[in-house]
Each structure stands twice: as C-alpha cells, then as structure tokens.
Amino acid sequence: MRDVRPDHLRQVRKPLPEWRRPRGHGGDTRHTTGRMLGVLGLAACGLVVAQALNARKPRPRAEPRAAAAAKVRHGAMALAGSVAADSLMEHFRGGYCNDAMYLAPAVAGTALAATAVRPPATPRDDAVARDVAHAASLVTGTAGLAFHVWNIGKRPGGLTSMNNLFYAAPVGAPGGLAASGLYGLAEGRLRRAPIMPPRVEGRLLAGLTALNLLATSAEAGLLHFRGAFQNPFMFVPVTAPPAAALVLGAAAADPAAGLRRLARAACWTTAAAGAAGVAFHAWGVHRNHGGWRNWRQNLIQGPPVAAPPAFVGLGLAGLGALDLMDIRDEGRR
Amino acid sequence: MPLIEDLEPRARDGRAPDVFSHGDWVPMRCYGDAEEVDFVIVGTGAGGGTLAGKLAEAGFSVVAMDAGPFWRPLEDFASDERHQDKLYWLEDRLSEGDDPIALGSNNSGCAVGGSTVHYQMVALRFRPEWFRSRSLLGYGHDWPVDWRRMWQCYDEVEEALKIAGPVRYPWGPKRGRYPYREHELNASAHVLARACEAMGVDWAACPNATVSAPHGKSPPCVYRGFCKIGCATNAKQSTLNTFVPRALAAGAEIRDLATVTRIETGRDGRAAGVLYHRDGEWRRQKARNVVVAGYSIETPRLLLNSASPAHPGGLANSSGLVGKNLMVHANHAVWGRFEEEIRWYKGPPSLAVCEHWNYADDHKDFFGGYAFMSQGPLPADFATTVADAEGIFGMELRQRMADYNHMAGLKIVGETMPQERNRVELADETDPLGVPRARVTYSMCDNDRALSDHSVRFMREAMAGAGGQQLFTSEGTAHLMGGCRMGFTPEDSVVDGDGRSWDVPNLWVCDGSLFPTGGGVNPSMTIMALAVHIADRIKTLAARGEV
Amino acid sequence: MTDRFDPPYPGYDILAKWDSVSFDDTTRRVYADRLKDVPERAFFSETEWRTLNAVCDRLIPQPDRPDPIPIAPWIDRALAENRTNGTRYTTMPQMREAWRTGLAAIEAEAQERHETAFSDLTAERQDALLRDVSNGDAEGPHWNGMPPHRFFRSVMLNEVVRIYYAHPAALSEIGFGGPAAPRGYVRLGADRMDPWEAPSDRRRR
Questions:
Q1: Nearest CA to CA, how far is B183 from chain A (Å)?
Q2: pLDDT below 70 — which residues of chain B?
Q3: Does residue A134 lie within any of the structural domains?
Q4: Cα–Cα distance between B201 and C25 in angstroms, integer?
Q5: Fewer CB within 10 A of the terminal residue: chain C, N end or C end?
Q6: Is A121 within the bounds of a domain?
Q7: What confidence tens digit (pLDDT) does each residue in B451-504 have?
Q8: Region Disordered: start and end of each range (chain A) (predicted)?
Q9: Domain span including residue A283
Q10: Position A173 in a domain
Q11: pLDDT (tens digit per residue) in C90-127
Q12: Cα separation of A208 and B404, whole Å?
C-alpha cells in the first residue's frame, strides 16, 4: 500500500521488519499468536494434571502440616497473580480515573511476591511482614467489593441494571484479592505452632474454600451469561467449582474418608478447569475481530485471560485443606 | 466508490462470494433460465433474503435476484462514509407531495442483503395491539396475521440473528430471553438513560442485531461505530451474512447485479417467470412462483410495470391499491451539547431505547406511537444534519462541528398513518434500462404532525433534564412501509395474510410493502418475521398441493 | 462570524494511525485515492468552476489550512460520472442541470446586485448572498423555476459538507476516533477514550 501521508507523519515510524509487517489483508485475524497462547494454556493445564498425577505417587513426606501450608500458599499465589494481572488490565481499561484503582494491582502484586517465595521451614522475622501483606490484601479486597458496589449504584439503572452488572466494575472481582489475603494469613498460621488440631484447621479452611468457590463461580456465571454461554465449555466454571464446593463443604462438615477422596478429585478438577480456562480465554481473544494482532483491544474486550487461574488457586487451597484433614488419619494409622 | 455499472456479477458459474472471507467462494447450485424453478424471488433484503433461506431449506428450488452487488464485508467495506455510498439505491426516483421524502441512504439499499446491510440494527417487535390497531386502538387497519403468530416468528428471527437484547424488557407482554446479552452502553446511551430517568419513564438497552459474543464465523462487535454504512467485521447480522449463506448452503441460487424489470404472465393469467437484465444481457427466468421482495418502492414499481392485457392496471392490482398507502417513519430528533465528551462515534449507534410512547395510551393527542433511541451519527452524516436543520454554513458550521465529540441526541421512529394519497406510481421518465422511474408522493397528515410535535416537546424536556445544552431539533423521515398492503379481502388489499396475491395465485409479496400500518419501531424485524411466516405458510400450502 | 477557527484537538491526526490496526487495506486504499488522486476539472465550464470554488470557500472556509481540503474537484468528478443521490424532488431538474442552473443563478445574482462576478465579491457580500439563497430570498428568473433553498441545502451545501467531512484532515480536526477496522474501541463511557483516540478536548484540559 502506497504511503500517502504528509511527510512529517511518514517519518514517525521506520518501516516494520519483514516479520512484523501485516500479511495479506488488513482486516484478517492472525492465527499464529492465538495458537501459541492456546498451546501455552494447554501446557499450563498439563502441568496441573502432571502435578496431580505426581501427588498420587508415594514419596518421602515433609512435615504434613507444612506440606499442606505449601499448597495453601500456592493457592494464595495463584489468586494473587490472577487478581494482579486482571486488575492491572481492567483498571487500565478504566483509565485509573480514581487513584484507589492503583491499589488493587499494587497490593495484589505484593501478595504475589509474598507468596511466590518459599518461606523458611521455621518462621522468622519475615513472617510478620508476610502477614501484613496478606492482611492488606484482605482489607483492600473487602474495600474493593464495597467500592465496586458503590460505583455501580451511582450509574443510571443502579444495582438492578444488568448492563451495570455486566459491564461496570465487576461486583465480585475484588473478592479474589480478599481470598488471597485470607489464604496467605492461613498459610502463616500453618507455619506456626498449631493452636487447634490440624483436622479442625483443615475443616475451617475447607469450609472457607467452599464459600469462595461458590462466589467465584457466581462471578464466572454472570460473565459467561453475558457471553450467552455461546461455547458449551463456558458451562464448566459454573458446574465443576460448585460441585467441588458442595463436596468440599460436605467434607468439612463430615470429614469421612470417602468424601475427602471425592473432594480431592473435585478440587483437582477445578484447578485443571482453571488452567484450561486460560487456554479457552486465549482462544476467545483470538476469535475477536483482529485476533491477537488487535491485542490492545481484544485482551481487554475479549474474555479475560488472567481470570480463570483463580480456580487454580481455590482448587489448590481446597487440596491444602484436605491435606490438613488427612493428618489425623495418618496419626491413627 | 465504484460505479454500479462498472461492477460485474460475482455469483455465477457454480460459486458465490463467501461473505466471511477475503476473496473466497462457497459453492452455489445454478439453474438454467429455461429450467422452471419453484420460486424466483426478486430482492434479497430482509424479506427476500430471509424467504430464500427458509424456502431453500424447505427443499424448494429457489433463484433469488438482486439489483445490487454481492459484497464481502471484510474486503469491500471501508471505514469511510463517502465510499460506502455504494450500499444505497442511488438511481433517481422522483419525489413530490406536501412533504416529499428523501430516498436513498435513509431507506433503500442496493446490494445482496438489501437495506439490512446498512440498517441501524435496532431489533424491536411491534406492540401486539398494532396488529389490530383498527379494532383495538381506533386507527389504521388490522393485520390479517395474529400477533401471537407474529411473536413466534419474531422468536425465530431473533434466534437466527442472535439478537443482543436486555434480560428484562420493560414494555409489552412477557417474552423469551434474547439469544445474546445486551451490549455495554456507551456514553450516548447513558444520556438517554439519564433523560428518561429525569422524565420518569422506563428505558432499556436497545436490542441490537450485532452479536455481543462470537456466533459462527461472526466475531463479537468491536464497537467501531460504522454499522450504518456497512459492518466490516461481520458482527452485524444482516441477511447478507445470515439467511443468504443459509440459502446458498441449502441449494438456492443468488444472482447479484440482476435487475428484474417485468413479471411475465401466461395466457392463464398466472405468473410464468421474470424478465431481467444481467451483465449486459436481457434474460428470462421461468418459475412456478414469483415472489416480489423489492421493498415499498420497487415492489409496486415492478408490479405496475408488469401490466398486460389481462392486467391492464398493473399486476395484482384489481384493488387499485398497488403503490398506495405508502408509509414512512417520522424521524425527528433533538440534539444537545454536553459538558463531558460523549464521543458517540463508538459502538452501535442506538444502544438504548425508550418505547414508553408506544405502549402508553393516555395523555396522547394523536394516534399511533413512537420510540426514541440514542444516536451516534458519523461526522458527515451529523454535519449535514446540522447544516440542514440550522441552515448554517461557513466557519459557524465548522465551529459547531468542533463540538462533535460533545454531542448527544435522541431520535424517534414515529408511526405515520396509512393514507391512500401517499403513493408510488410510474413516472413518464425512464431509467437507463427503459423502465419508468418511480414517482413517490408523500404528505403528512395532522396526526403525523401532532405525533412529531409531541415527540419533540418530550425529547427537548428530557434532553434538558439529562444536562443537554444548546438544544436543536432536526426533522426527517426513515424507513418505508406499505404500498402492497396485506389484508382480509381482495377489495381492501393487494395480497392475503400469506403474502399471496388475490389476483394471481402464484405471485407473492414478501417485504415491508405488506405492512397495513407502520408501527412505531424500526421495521426490519417485522419484515423478517413476516418472511418466516410466509415461508411456513408456503410449506403448509405446498403440502396440501395448493401452491 | 469571524473566519477564525479554534481547533479542539490540535496535533491529533488520524493518519498517524496509518500503520496501526485502526486501518485496514480497504480503508487505506480509499484514503489513498482521496488524498492523492484529486481529479481534474471535467464537468464544469471555467466560469462555473470559478463560481463553484468561490462558493465552496464560503460554505467551508479554510483560512487556517495552508493546503485546503479540495472540495470542488470531487463535486465535478461526481457530476462527470453522472452520480445521483437517489432523490429527485419533482421541483428540481436532474442533478447535472441543477448544479449548472444553481451556479449560473448565483453568478447572475451577484451581477444583478453588485455588477461583479461572485468570485470577486468580498466575503461579507458573498455570505450575505448565499444566506439569502439558503433562506429562499433569492427568487428570480435565472433560477429557471428551481427553488433556490432546495438547491442550496439539499444539493449544494449537503454535497460540500459531505466531501469536507470525508477528508481525514477534517476528521482529525473534530477529534473523530476512526478509522476503526479491524480495531474498534474499548472505552465507551463519557470522558473515556482509548489510547488510539484523540486525547481529551483541549478546551477542557
């Protein structure tokens, strides 16, 4: 295409290197990036499955409570990572018109850092710092919930308008940050000497996780409803996690071995669904007009690639809870 | 923009353009001119395109012709208003009367897909009472189709087009959920919401014929805002990318750039086929049935031009009503400047709607109703509105246009009364193919003016309530309806409730010209619903051996 | 009305997006034609051409542009190709004839009032004359029965305005966000804009 722009504009940009130049027709969607991301998502999914298979192999165990704590930490990490990336992008969409909007990605990023580093086997000075970071997540997440509700309320149509629930500040999203904070605090507790039997810790954590699963599933349900469940796989996050919540809740109420086994499977399924969700969402971005080549629009407008890992986090947290509940059984054996 | 006479037909030799591609094709079954097909359909817009798809899927042999070209939106549609004039019927038509109407870009398409290629995608249903407006509301004429039947057909059309609509629609009887969810409201739609809340009336996200999630090969809408001049992404659901591909897949032949100038009749008085002009040649297609779907001007024009010794006043015109009772929609608007930047060029132009005055019967000094929608005209479109409405030009106009990003507006689709004096006739002058041009006569009646005045008063107050300043009003018309009314008897109508001519049993009409009354909503959904209804009736009648 | 124009979005140029996903090849092609292939006069006579250019200069004055957006050449091109707009009011002659009659009538008006060619009148006199035509206050035998205001608003002003606001420079001037394919927009709310749109109105910053 001949460049007919005025000279001063023509000098703005050097010609693109061959590999970056648009090929063929301008409006075409590009497949390559979409496929690559799809593959990456599938790989992530595979990792979760591999870890699941791995976990079934007998191996020398660390102290069981510490092992459970590690799972909970990984759960908190996945949640924090998901919120950090998602809020960074969504608040960018919102133009950071309110300074408080910087808080969410900043706090989530801190929480991510606090959970990403493996803590020393015995609690040291940094334990308090970690607790502070997680408490900040909890507070920010909770405040965020309130802020989002207030924000919707002041728009035309208010809280009863589906348009606001679909497209304004997402009601439930900051809950992910609060949950990450809760799991981070729980992990800190698990690193310290128990003040209650691990079984009870496990049941509390399982109950909390069941509630979180329901809430997150409701959020996914709302947004997938907005997408009219146009792809049958969109039903997965509104079926698998509630099922896991049900079984996990039941196991919390009555930690029978059978229920715990079932809950374990359900939690692995939820985590795997979360990982697969990334791949599906990457595919969804590609299906938007212009595909990944139009990423500046489609990453924001397409399905949020960063959202599904929340289910990975909750699945891992549920597994941590189940590990804790297993501890008594092992003691009896 | 290419001149239409320089274009060559694309759908031929066993293939038709794949509208979802750059330069690709889909296979197409082709029929010979001498092969007597079950149906030849003249026009592939909301009526003809839909009917072609439905009839082909029912197993009939179908050839559908359109005077316009067969575009591939991805490669043919530019983000440019002037270039996209190629979508309109720009051949001269004569316009007269007390209130002569503008024709072309605001109401007539010329392409495979017809006006649905450039419609505003507002996907509203008729109010149920309008199908019996004479009996229940005291004006106009009753329709020979029951509203419940029509609502079934709306369901089918909305499903086929994956209409993106609100979860709760505030007006009318309970309806099933729209297939897709409403779009995010843009700032212009929020102005309508605020305006309605200021006036204490309901508002809703406007059901739109552009997808809010992927559907088949259609990606979700990217909110580029060029919808009205041709969607270059295929998110918009027109017959071009819905029923026409379905028709092709089911074995119909689409002939683009094929202008039908005459319906030929046999010695028995029945339609025998059509005479058409394509690629520089005059040809005849034989058919067992002829369906006219050229919309309210070309349909009457074709019928009138098909006069013969057996039908001296024009085909299907024993009632003398062919071309009569032409209706438009009043299209008055109130515009205002807002302190904030609205940037109404983003998103489908009408994302919010108020149908209050379609459903309220009290405190009205007029018959009929109107809906109003939020607006998002492109720059040249709005500049001509300002220039025409305010009569300004020069630097003043440029300064006014400097506020383009601060503007918002409400525009009505207002019902006008059917009047026999509003009509389509053949002029003495002929077009380049030698066919007499259409002469369109239109005059408003007192009720039409009362309705428009009411709407302007209401919208001015509403816009002021929403914070609009420097308000001004524009007038105009949109859409066409009527001209070949459907009805109950051969005396009061051109066709029966199945769209079938009273005079010529194998001649059908399937487009907006069937409307006995206009309603206060955009007509496309109703035209498509009628096409679904007629297709079903043809299937039933054919099964009984009555076609 | 002065001929000063206060640009709300100085420095914003939609052509800067030429290489981006806001442009597709189809639009690039159309814009390239518009910017580079400005047609030569083919339809109007030299006199008509002079009047037309003078009229265009008043309908859309562009003293602020060193390189004004060409308008008359596109009117000429459309008429040379015998394009119409789908509507001929029965009070109006065919499009070509309407333009010829209209321009001749404006010229005759100028001669009658000031004994000077329209193109040689002062801007004030040109504006006053055009305003009278627009308001229908310029009836006369040289209009050949064509209603002056109908010609002025429905044909002449309409076409001039459509041509001007189809040009990228005019679109940039008003802060239009397009072209927009394949990339559209994400931020739809009031006072919200994507990085590829014009930054907010200078007069409000």
A1: 8
A2: none
A3: yes
A4: 45
A5: C
A6: yes
A7: 999 999 999 999 999 999 999 999 999 999 999 999 999 999 999 999 999 999
A8: 1-32
A9: 32-53+63-332
A10: yes
A11: 999 999 999 999 999 999 999 999 999 999 999 999 99
A12: 53
Amino acid residing at B303:
L
Residue C2 domain flag: no
Write the ipTM.
0.96
Question: Which residues, at least 6 apart from B382, have a Cβ–Cβ distance to it below 8 Å?
Answer: B401, B404, B407
Looking at the structure of chain C, the number of domains it has is 1
Selection from B17, B546, B23, B28 nearest residue B288 by Cα: B546
CB atoms within 10 A of CB C32: 16
Name the DSSP class of C43: S
Residues 6+ apart with CB under 8 A from A283: A34, A37, A38, A41
CATH of domain B4-543: 3.50.50.60
Whether residue A289 and residue B222 make contact (CB cut-off 8 A), yes or no, is: yes
**Mean pLDDT of all residues in A195-211:** 94
* Mean pLDDT of the region C155-162: 97
Question: Which residues on B lie below 8 Å from C197 (Cβ)?
Answer: 343
**Best of B76, B182, B202, B343 to disrupt the A interface by mutation (most A CBs within 10 Å)?**
B182
pLDDT in tens, B22-56: 999 999 999 999 999 999 999 999 999 999 999 99
Q: Mutate which of A2, A3, A4 to test chain C, going by most C C-beta atoms within 10 A?
A: A4
The predicted-structure confidence for C172-205, as pLDDT tens digits, reads as follows 999 999 899 899 999 999 999 999 999 988 776 5
For residue C124, tell me if it sits in a domain. Answer: yes
Q: Judge whether C9 lies within some domain.
A: no
From chain C, pick out residues whose CB is under 8 angstroms from the CB of B78. 24, 26-27, 29-30, 179
| Cβ pair B95:C61 closer than 8 A | no
Contact at 8 Å (CB) between B371 and B354?
yes
Q: What six digits make up the tokens of A331?
A: 């003691």
Q: Quick one: closest CA in A to B196, which residue?
A: A156
- Which residues of chain C lie closer than 8 angstroms to A297, CB-CB? 21, 183-186, 194
Q: Which of C81, C109, C79, C74 is nearest to C97 (CA)?
A: C79
Asked if residue A12 belongs to a domain, the reply is no
Instruction: Give the total number of structural domains in chain A.
Output: 1
pLDDT digits (tens, 9 = 90+) for B123-142: 999 999 999 999 999 999 99
Give the closest of A9, A13, A290 to C182, CB-based: A290
Structure tokens at B410: 């409400």
DSSP secondary structure, C87-142, as one string: -EETTS--HHHHHHHHHHHHHHHHHHHHSS-GGGS-HHHHHHHHHHHHTT----GG
Q: How many angstroms separate the CA atoms of B375 and B342, rounded? A: 11
Contact check, Cβ <8 Å, B394/C180: no
CB contact under 8 A, B96 and C191: no
Within 10 angstroms of residue C41's Cβ, the number of other Cβ atoms is 16
Q: Which residues of A touch B (CB under 8 A)?
A: 24-25, 27-29, 155-157, 162-163, 166-167, 225-228, 230-231, 284, 287-290, 294, 297, 301
Q: Which helix (H) or strand (E) holds B278?
A: strand B271-278
- For the segment B205-226, what is each residue's pLDDT rounded down to a tens digit? 999 999 999 999 999 999 999 9
Among C25, C32, C182, beta carbon nearest to A294: C182
Handedness of CA B375, B381, B386, B391 (dihedral sign): negative
Buried residues in B162-190 as b, exposed as e (16+ CB within 10 A):
bbbbbbebebbeeeeebbbbbbbbbbbbb
Q: What is the DSSP string of B397-466?
A: HHHHHTTGGGEEEEEEEEE----TTSEEEEEEEE-TTSPEEEEEE----HHHHHHHHHHHHHHHHHHHHT
Which of B168, B190, B219 is the closest to A289 by Cβ?
B219
Would you call A301 and B205 a contact, using CB atoms and an 8 Å cutoff? no
Residue C88: domain span: 14-204
> What does the block give as tokens for B455?
């709407």
